[in-house]
Every structure is written in C-alpha cells, then in structure tokens.
Design goal:
The chain is α/β, with parallel strands linked by helices. 32% of the residues lie in helices and 23% in strands. The protein has two domains: 168 residues, Rossmann fold, CATH 3.40.50; 174 residues, D-Amino Acid Oxidase, Chain A, domain 2 (2-Layer Sandwich), CATH 3.30.9.10. It binds flavin-adenine dinucleotide. Flavin-adenine dinucleotide binds next to helix 1, strand 2, strand 10, strand 15 and helix 10.
C-alpha cells in the first residue's frame, strides 16, 4: 500500500488526508502543535463560491462545496447551507450588485429590501436598497470541524495523526509521497523554495460575539458594500471602479487596513465578525484597537444581532501569493508543497486536494 505523509493538520492537510485515505492509501499526518491552531481554526468558516472569479476558481469552489457536504454528511458534523447576502445601502453598491447578477445570473440574483428582510432578521432595514443573494454558500464552524476531523479520519480510514511533532526533514518520513501543507510557515521546510516563491503573509483581525439567545439564527452569511471591492469575482463589474473610488475618498482608513466587514454564525450560536488585511512577512503580534473599532462601526450600519457584545478577539495569518491563486511546488521527487490558499482555503480545500490528486502536474 502506498504511504502518504502530510505535514500540517490545517484544512489543506486534512483535505489531502481525506482524499488519499478514501482512495485506499495509508496516510500519516504530522502536526507540530497539540492541535491545529493556524488559519484553519481562526476563520469565518465560510465556504464561499460567490467570492471566486468565474472559471477555474469558481468551478473549483463549487466542486469543493459539494465535497464539503459529502464529508460533513459522512461525519455527522454540523453545517449550515445558509447562502449569502451582500447588502447595498448606496447607489454604487446597488450598481455593482445588480451588474454582477446580470452578468452571472446562475450565481446570484438581486433582491429588493422586503425579500432581504424576509430572509434575514439581522439586516438593518433603514436605507436598505436591496442585496445580492446567492444560495451556494455554506457555513461550518471551523474550530469544531478542524478539531473533529482528525478523530473521524483516524476511526473511519485509519489515518495516523502525530500531533506535537514538528517535521524538520521530510526524508525521515519514509513515505512514497509527502504533502507539505505548512500554512504560513516558510522557514522550517524548504526555506529556499519559499524565499524565491513570492509568497507573503496576511494578518486578519477577527471578533466573536457572545452566544446569541437559544434558537436565534443569523440566516444567510452577511457582507456589506466594502466586500464588493474585496473578492475577485466582482472585478468583472464595470461599475466597481466608481465604488472603489468613493470608498477610497470617504473611508480611507478602511482601505489602509484592507477592511471589509462580514458576519457568520458558529454552531453554538455566536456571530463571527471580521476582518482586516495587513500584508508582509513580518506580522505585528499586537492587534490594533482602531481596526476592531472600524469593523464594529461599519457592521452597525448594516447588521444587528440580539447581543452585539464581543466575547473574543484574535487574529489569524494566512499565506498568500499575489500572482497565483495558490502556491504549489514540487521541490524534489515525491514531495509537493501546497499552501497560500489565502482567503479561500476553507472554500477550496477539498476541491483542491481532489484536483491535485487527479492532475498532480497542474500548474497554477
Ligand atoms: C481570519 C481568517 C479568516 C478567514 N476566513 C475564511 C473563510 O471564511 N473562508 C475561506 O475559504 N477561507 C478563509 N480564510 C482562509 C483559510 O482559513 C486559509 O486559507 C486556510 O485555513 C489555510 O489552511 P492551511 O492548512 O494551508 O494552513 P493552517 O491552517 O495554517 O495549517 C498549517 C498547519 O501546518 C502546521 N505546520 C507548519 N509547519 C509544520 C512542520 N514543519 N511540522 C509540522 N506541522 C507544521 C501548523 O502548525 C499548522 O497547524 C481565512 C483566514 C483567516 C486567517
């Protein structure tokens, strides 16, 4: 039986483990921490095809979404097929949302204020012009899922997990194929490959509310107008530059910190809120209170929850390549590096693992 070794128990490593174990390979996963603590447990848990550019990435996101459902059904772990709303309060936001709906009607549609409010009790009604509604997005609870998948993979597919084990030399793993899914660690394995790769880091600040009252539901995941300038999918809209110019002039501090504002719900009923984007290899270990304040101020313009009290604040870091959608390299025979899935790693994880399995020679 072919032996597969995987470095990293984040979502990209777990997706590789699932993909190979399901096909009968003997899989071992090595994770330096006692449990995964990287980007995969610090995110919104949004499986978010709506953010991906039409073509390869959107197709990959949609395939990955189906695989997520398959995995979560198999595990019995919870997920929420809520869809998403990008709410519009300004003329330029409405213009972008309507244009996107016209250009890509199979992905999303424009809905008026009354339909928005019937789909979500959390959207602020005052000044609401409507929203871009997509039914494809799923919410998962990242801490719950990434924490529980190893046990499931161990019990169902005999995957071996070695937590608390930092890999410093892949040759010692004695495997036919090694996948290095080391997230934003560019220093431990193949530092010379990373040094010339063009990858960098992105730091994101996040918050979570207290648990909302029993039975309360956020409904569709929410995004405000700022998000329309963030995801690649919306770059097809000819109306986008006007929105970007207005935000740059009106809200320069949101551009300075790369802030856009979204909300998702966790399995225990809290609301996850974020985020900002600060780029560079040298990540500031301290959070900026100003960023949290800007996020919460903007959020209050479009969303209201029974309790807006914040229970947790943290930041996450992901690896990003500015010219490629991922960093995929094969530094020596039998070794693949798969990382830099940037802000779409949860979304594409299972689809990406399947795609690389079927076409290991693909070039991003
Ligand atoms: C705040 C935030 C919000 C986000 N929101 C979303 C979202 O809603 N939807 C979405 O699709 N994406 C989102 N993302 C992006 C997504 O979380 C990442 O793309 C994804 O989690 C990256 O997964 P990974 O497995 O590559 O990295 P990680 O989750 O960072 O995992 C890498 C693991 O490798 C381990 N490791 C590294 N080196 C070694 C070694 N030498 N030996 C052993 N172990 C090692 C690390 O300890 C770590 O556990 C978000 C990211 C952040 C930070």
């Amino acid at each position: 039986m072919k032996q597969i070794a995987i470095v990293g128990a984040g979502i990209l490593g777990l997706a590789q483990a699932y993909t190979h174990a399901k096909r009968g390979y003997k899989v071992r996963v090595y994770e330096r921490s006692q449990r995964a603590v990287g980007a995969s447990v610090r995110n919104f848990g949004m499986i978010w095809p709506i953010g991906q550019k039409a073509g390869l990435l959107c197709d990959l996101a949609m395939r990955s979404r189906d695989l997520w459902v398959e995995v979560l059904e198999e595990t019995g772990l919870p997920y929420f097929p809520t869809g998403s709303l990008h709410v519009a309060y300004r003329e330029d936001e409405e213009a972008v949302a309507r244009e996107f709906a016209e250009l890509e009607p199979e992905r999303a549609r424009w809905i008026g204020p009354s339909e928005v409010l019937s789909r979500s009790g959390s959207v602020v009604g005052e000044g609401l012009r409507g929203a871009l509604f997509s039914e494809h997005e799923l919410l998962v609870d990242p801490r719950l899922i990434v924490g529980a998948l190893p046990k499931f993979l161990e019990e169902k597919y005999g995957v071996e997990f070695h937590f608390g084990t930092a890999v410093t030399d892949v040759r010692k793993l004695a495997a036919d194929q090694v996948f290095v899914c080391s997230g934003d660690d560019f220093e431990t394995l193949y530092p010379e490959v990373f040094a010339s790769s063009g990858v960098t880091r992105c730091k994101l600040q996040m918050m979570r509310t207290v648990r909302q009252p029993q039975g309360w539901e956020l409904g569709p995941a929410l995004a405000g107008g700022l998000t329309l300038r963030f995801y690649q999918s919306f770059k097809v809209c000819s109306t986008l530059p006007a929105l970007e110019a207005r935000i740059a002039a009106e809200l320069p501090e949101y551009d300075k910190y790369g802030i856009h504002v979204m909300a998702s719900q966790t399995a225990d009923g809290a609301v996850t809120i974020g985020d900002s984007h600060e780029y560079g290899l040298d990540v500031d270990i301290f959070n900026k209170e100003e960023i949290d304040r800007l996020i919460l101020n903007y959020l209050q313009g479009f969303a209201k929850f029974p309790s807006m009290a914040i229970a947790e604040r943290w930041h996450g870091v992901y690896a990003r390549h500015f010219d490629r959608p991922f960093f995929y390299a094969r530094p020596e025979p039998g070794v693949s590096i798969v990382t830099a899935s940037s802000g779409k790693g949860m979304t594409v994880s299972f689809g990406l693992a399947e795609m690389l399995y079927e076409n290991p020679g693909c070039d991003f």
